[in-house]
Amino acid sequence: MKFLLVFDFDHTIIDENSDTWIVKCAPERKLPNGLRNSYQPGHWTEYMSRVFVYLGDNGVKEDEMKRTMTTIPFTVGMIDLLGFIGENKELFDCIIVSDSNTVFIDWILKAADFRKVFDEVFTNPAAFSSTGYLTVQHFHAHHCAKCPKNLCKRKVLKEFIDKQLERGVSYTQIVYIGDGGNDLCPVMFLKKNDIAMPRQGYTLEKKVSELAQSLSPVQCSVLVWSSATDIMSYLKLLIKE
Fold this sequence. Notes:
Rossmann fold; alpha/beta; 10 helices
């Protein structure tokens, strides 16, 4: 009996967006209008690449970025929740699927000593170049019209589950915890026995309830959370059953 926990990162594990938090490193803690207005829907990774070039051009170094990123607050109750999952790893496999990047997520999880809670982290690969600039790439290519072009979370989840099955690991239930519009695609992949946990007041909750109103609800159960304490209560019930 094993459960798979799938976490988004921004506004789910941490209470902010890591990509917008990094702007605190910019001169006067803001971006020039031209750069800010250069974002095109579905092309967030390209936009962030330009932000990282701007930061590099303005002499922002790796250690300053790291210091800034590790001040991001975790969502209320999340530290307790991740501690609880860490103590029960024999029951839970735990992955992150995020549109952030490997550098930011590694910094934040390692600073709080949570890296070992997660079996795998699926996010855009990032690294510092020889000139000290942070660079980010697309996670993968896909053909899903619903998702941003760098990441389809459904594809990631499906490939992970298939790989686990090949290793002889199947899950009693998948619990998907997220908040954003790009979490809807993987939620629609979940089956009747699984559960989606959208964060209260965020885009995923709105989109799931719109589907229910248009009489094409998701197959899985839905349980809305406002603090990670709600998620922990559910997991405690799950392992009692």
